[in-house]
Amino acid sequence: MSGPHPSPNDAPRPRKLSSRNVLNHRSKRLFPGDTLKHRIARALCDAGCLPRKEFFEAWETAKRVRRRMRGGHIYDLAAGHGLLAAILLILDNSSPGATCVDLVRPPSQAKVLAALTSVWPRLAGRISFIEGDLSDVSPAPEDLVVSVHACRDLSDRVLEVAVRSQCRVAVLPCCHDLKRTPSGPYRSWMDPTLAIDVARVVRMEQAGFTVTAQQIPDAITPKNRLLLATPGPMTEGLQ
Ligand SMILES: C[S@@+](CC[C@H](N)C(=O)[O-])C[C@H]1O[C@@H](n2cnc3c(N)ncnc32)[C@H](O)[C@@H]1O
């Protein structure tokens, strides 16, 4: 990336983190800082294809995942543009690589990856894309499965991949299928979408995982519950 950026003091802050406006050259003034977050955002402005909201979703998720889960090959399932996988690799170079899986490879995937690789050349050749069903992958136990906004039961299928492989997993579920609201007694106490996510936590715990529940800021998306799960009992330090 080249060219001067306005000083942080002059910079307008993104008013609407949930905006679906596409990041482009004009958006660079929103990200003038030397922080990694702003550097990634400016690179994505050069890609000219990514809605602002999706940058914040991927960044906030990746940051929280990497505080707890380092290393391992990354499987970004229902990956779309695959930005989550790329940011995870930028944040932790000890992961050897990433595989993005989606039924369809959107044109934005190549653009996002090219823009980031021009600033972080070490990404080159380390992210592959499989067009196919997310359940077809077989991660190893040391790997890391991630997914942002896999719709409806796709988030459950992402969790099933992790249970089958006994590997770490992080999901930020999306729209919920209310027909799958659990029938437990707590159903009348809480919003049905929360009940579905609580049932996901319970299922992962019953499968022997240690689960951490977090949230990304709801100013970015109301679908902001982040479930992190690691096989086995809780251990000290990074999982
Ligand atoms: C809401 S988008 C999320 C995309 C991306 N993770 C993001 O955060 O922008 C859901 C994605 O799931 C993909 N998808 C739907 N069914 C799938 C399946 N069976 N296996 C893999 N991906 C699937 C869609 O093609 C779509 O890209």
Description:
This protein has 239 residues and is an alpha/beta fold. It has a single domain, classed as Vaccinia Virus protein VP39 (Rossmann fold), CATH 3.40.50. It has 6 helices and 7 strands; from the N terminus they run ααβαβαββαβαββ. The protein has helices spanning 36-47, 52-68, 83-91, 107-119, 154-165, 192-206, and strands at 74-77, 98-102, 127-131, 144-148, 168-172, 209-215, 225-231. The protein has a 7-stranded mixed sheet, sandwiched between helices. α5 (154-165) links the parallel β4 (144-148) and β5. α1 (36-47) crosses α4 (107-119) and α2 packs across α3 (83-91). The two termini are 35 Å apart. The mean pLDDT is 92. S-adenosylmethionine binds at residues 54, 57, 78-81, 101-104, 133-134, 148-151, 154, 174. S-adenosylmethionine is lined by residues 54, 57, 78-81, 101-104, 133-134, 148-151, 154, 174.
| Secondary-structure-derived class | alpha/beta
Sheet with the most strands, sense and barrel status: 7 strands, mixed
- Calculate the mean pLDDT score and round it: 92
Q: Identify the CATH class.
A: Alpha Beta
What is the CATH T-level topology? Rossmann fold
Roughly how much helix do the residues carry, as a percent range?
25-40%
* Architecture (CATH level 2) name: 3-Layer(aba) Sandwich
How large is the radius of gyration?
18 Å
Termini separation: 35 Å
Associated small molecules: S-adenosylmethionine
Query: Could you name the ranges where pLDDT drops below 50 across 5 or more consecutive residues?
Result: none
